[in-house]
Every structure is written in structure tokens, then in C-alpha cells.
Amino acid sequence: MSFINSKIKIYTFAILSSGIFLASAQTKMTAPSTETSKSGKILPTNLKWSERMLLSEMNRFPESWMLDFSKSPKWTYPAAIVLDAAEQVYAKTGKKEYYNYISSFGEKLVKEDGTIVSYELEKYNIDLLNSGNVLLYLYEKEKKEKYLKALQTLRLQIDGQPRTNEGSFWHKKIYPNQVWLDGLYMGMPFYTHFTKDFTKGTDATKAYDDIVMQFDSVQKNLLDKKTGLLYHAWDESKEQAWADKQTGLSPNFWGRAMGWYGMAMVDVLDYLPKDHPGRARIISYIKSFSDAVIKYQDKKSGLWYQVLDKPLANGNYEEATASAMFVYTIIKSVNKGYLPKSYKAAAKKGYDGIIKDLITVDENGVVNLNKCCAVAGLGGKPYRDGSYEYYVNEKIRSNDAKGTGPFILASLEFEK
After folding, report:
1. In a 3-state reduction of DSSP, which class is residue 36?
2. Exposed, middle or buried by CB within 10 Å (0-12, 13-18, 19+), for 336?
3. Residue 10 falls within a domain, yes or no?
4. How far is residue 398's CA from residue 272's CA, in Å, rounded to a whole number?
5. In a domain, 72, yes or no
6. First CA to last CA distance, the chain
7. CA angle 118, 123, 129 (to 5 degrees)
8. Of all helices (H) and strands (E), which one includes residue 126?
9. What domain count does the chain have?
């Protein structure tokens, strides 16, 4: 009898053990949707990509001022791209946590007297207008006087921003006579949105004309007619070491510079009056831009390279921020009617390529965007010469806001 009992005990233990094994195996298999992150927040995998990436960014950067890998609060431009996307996710879902994340940026970065943390107007850095988009949104929602004062300060920068002889904004005061494609995105959506909200009559007309002229000037001075691509920058004085002595142009087609330009055009059209004569010109620029970009899209992966026209050159790679920006520009243009529906195929191919080749998902459901160029520019110290070798050797990292923001924006366009 004791022998039978011992056999039953062994058999029972075996069943229990196998049950424990099965349970642990199932737990491991379903981990992405059930496991909690370090902050204790569950990141579900059954949401749309837009919300999954926003939640992942909030998980990585619990405070919205941290979005640019910032160690302390400072007024920088990348956070605003993710927060612009967060505005749309909030509008779509109504989830208050997203609004609070946006609102905390303004609370932390703008003091009660309207001064902006770490911002210095006299530097005339056009990058620093971009985060004004967040304040325009918050002022519309909350009507706080401190946001109005901060917005008026940023608008003053536009009045004093140095310009080329033709009227294009210099990128920064420390970069004299230089127009960068980046600057169109950094300044023009803010300038247009501010004008729509606060400027009337002839002053508004003058501002809208000035905004359209910025794009006209870039098309005239930075476009390469052979490829349809635009160079990263142009030095009117032709004095910079990176500038061609005949044309003043920088030597390469950097993916993200083109990405900034595309996003600038589609975002400005959100606020430019429907009857403004320059609107049709900007739409024509989007068409030629998209045609050129699609020509340099990798046929297999659907992605774009760090240096657009040299895919086979040593060290070049499929880069996430430019790819996300191009996808966003094209799909938004299709949705808005700026481009024919036939262009959606190229955008979808790029979007699918990002998800397949550049997105990874951690076991706790956190979504990562990989192969982002951290930063690139021209001039400065140490000197950035704009060479091919320079661009492909800049730091590469994951989850840069300059990629995650456009990815969320692109996702939202596909989810409509």
C-alpha cells in the first residue's frame, strides 16, 4: 500500500511539475502584454503603433522635458515633435495622461513671469522656435498668461532673426549668411500658426507672404535640378569651408535635412489660408520633393539612407529619422489631397519597412526605434565639413525624438 501511495505521490508531483512548466512557458510567451516595466506601467501590445510608441516614450522619459535625453530641463526642439504627435493621440483617444504629459512641458519650461528656461533670444537660433508649437497648443487649451508672454517673446525672435539679402532666415546668429533646410521646419510652422492665432489684417498678409517666400527662396537656392533633391545648406557668402566656392552649397544630400523640409511644408499648410496664392506653389514643391524622394527609396526595404544618393557607399545605412519623416510627409500629403492617392504605395512601403527592420519590441511591450542619427550639422567646433564621411560617422542611437515623433505622426496618418 505504501508502495502504491508513493507511486501516486510521484505521479501527482510529475503532473504538478509539468503544470508549473506549462504555466511558466505561457507566461514567457505572453510577457509582452502582461509584464510591467520598471516604472510599474504595463505597456499593452494590442494598441495601434501611434499609442504604443507614445507610451514607450513616456516610459523612457517620464518627464516630457527629458525627451531629448536631457538631464535637466532646457528649451530644446526635439521634445516638441513628440508632443505635437501626443496632441493628436490625445485628441484621438481622450486619455488624460497624454494631455498631462504635454502640459507638464509648459509647466516646467515656462516660469510664471513668462520667461523660458535656458532660452536666450539674442542668440537668434531658429531651432528654438519649434517648441513654441507646444505653447500655442497649451495657450489655446489653458489660456495661461505666462504662455502668451512666452509666445510673444518667441515671436520677437522672428522680427530680429538675421536674414540673407533675399530675406531667408539665417539658421543661427553664429552661422552668418547660412540657410539650412532644418530651419524651415524649426521656424515656419510656428510662424504660420502664431500668425493664424494672433495676427490680423495687413500684418497677417505680410507674415504669410514672408513664410511662403522662405520656401520659394530655398527652392531657388538649394535645389539640385538633376536629382530633384535639396542640399543640406547654402552659404550666401560662400566663405564656409563646407561651401562650394561657385554655388555656396554644402556637398551632400543628408536624409534628415530633406525630412525636415518635407515636414515643414505639410505642417505649414495646416495654418496657411486656403486662398493664399503661395499655397499652390508649396503644394507643387511637395510634389517635386516626393518624386525625388521616392526615386531614392530602397526598392527592397522601402527605407532611405543617411546620405540619400549614395546607398552603396561604404558606411552608409538605412536611417530611421529620415525614413519616418518621408513617410509622414507623403502619407499626410495624400490624406490632405496634396498628392494623388497613387503615392500612398511608396509611403506604405516605407512605413512597413520601418516596422520590419527598424522597430524592436522589448519583453515588457516597450517599443524601440533603432538606427537614428543622433545629430548632424555644419561648421561649429569641432568643425563639421559636410563630407560623406562626416555624415555616416555621426553617432547612431535608438529612440531619438527626431525619429519617434515622426513615426507617431506617420502612424496616426495611416490609422485614419
Report:
1. strand
2. middle
3. no
4. 34
5. yes
6. 70
7. 70
8. none
9. 1
H-helix or E-strand spanning residue 359: strand 359-361
Active-site option among 84, 127, 182, 235: 182
Task: Give residue 394's Cα distance to chain centre.
Answer: 18
Q: What is the pTM of this model?
A: 0.90
Give the CA dihedral 378, 381, 383, 386, nearest 10 degrees.
-20
Q: Flag whether pLDDT at 328 surpasses 80.
A: yes
Please, what sign has the CA dihedral across residues 210, 216, 220, 223? positive
CATH of the domain at 90: 1.50.10.10
pLDDT one-digit tens code per residue, 258-317: 999 999 999 999 999 999 999 999 999 999 999 999 999 999 999 999 999 999 999 999
pLDDT in tens, 62-105: 999 999 999 999 999 999 999 999 999 999 999 999 999 999 99
249 assigned to some structural domain: yes
- What is the band of 21 on the pLDDT scale with cuts at 50, 70, 90? very low
14 inside domain:
no
- Catalytic site residue 182? yes
How many Å apart are CA 128 and CA 119, to the nearest integer? 8
Note every long-range contact of 343-349, with CB atoms under 8 Å and residues 24 or more positions apart, other chains counting.
Answer: 343/290, 343/294, 346/290, 346/294, 346/297, 346/302, 347/410, 348/414, 349/297, 349/302
For residue 391, the 8-state DSSP code is H
Parallel, antiparallel or unpaired: strands 233-235 and 178-180: antiparallel
User: Position of cell 494590442?
Assistant: 46
DSSP 234: E
DSSP 242: T
Chain-centre distance for alpha carbon 50: 13
Range of the domain at 219: 35-414
Q: Which pLDDT band, with edges at 50, 70 and 90, does 41 fall under? A: low
Q: How far apart are CA 263 and CA 255, in angstroms?
A: 13
Contact 373, 396 (CB under 8 A): yes
